[in-house]
Design goal:
homodimer; alpha+beta; Arc Repressor Mutant, subunit A; ArsR family transcriptional regulator (chains A, B); ArsR-like_HTH (chains A, B); DNA-binding transcription factor activity (chains A, B)
Chain lengths: 105, 105
Amino acid sequence: MVSHRAAPVHTHPDEVSVQTALATLADPVRLYLVRELASSDDWTRSCGSFDVSVGKAALSHHFTALRAAGLVEQRDEGPRRVNRLRRTEFETRFPGLLALVLRDD
Amino acid sequence: MVSHRAAPVHTHPDEVSVQTALATLADPVRLYLVRELASSDDWTRSCGSFDVSVGKAALSHHFTALRAAGLVEQRDEGPRRVNRLRRTEFETRFPGLLALVLRDD
């Protein structure tokens, strides 16, 4: 039996301040999650599929922050919560910012 | 008599990680300082010329962070420490980032 969770709450990038966007991306765990999602197809990565050193509660907190910054969309598929990077909407709101954090350097 | 301070230590933007750049700009006081410097001529603004609600020690800490992120250059002119935004170098290193934080929205 799967426990029922509240559906995730989302914020559209248009409602996000540049300060929030920067603060959200400045965290190394969130930066890693964004980079992983950028190299994965939409809705293929569950929250449990990331190789992070933080606990479940901390990881959940990071996903909440990513949703609140308009960076990630989530939906529940049975027991899995799957993710996509809101690449197009975020790019429209903050042109070039994703490209900066996704580049190799 | 003016107390002698150590010359400020600078970091070139080329040596700055994107994570440091984002974290530095995500702070509201530092964002304000960067915006003020962007609308001022180089070397015209002393550290004491900004209308901030933080104390001297905190302000000094913010300027240290701005230098460490390659955002601000400082030099001492007698008793004044004056500033310039490293607009060109920072733009070369992080294209579009300054424009994002300087725009009105």
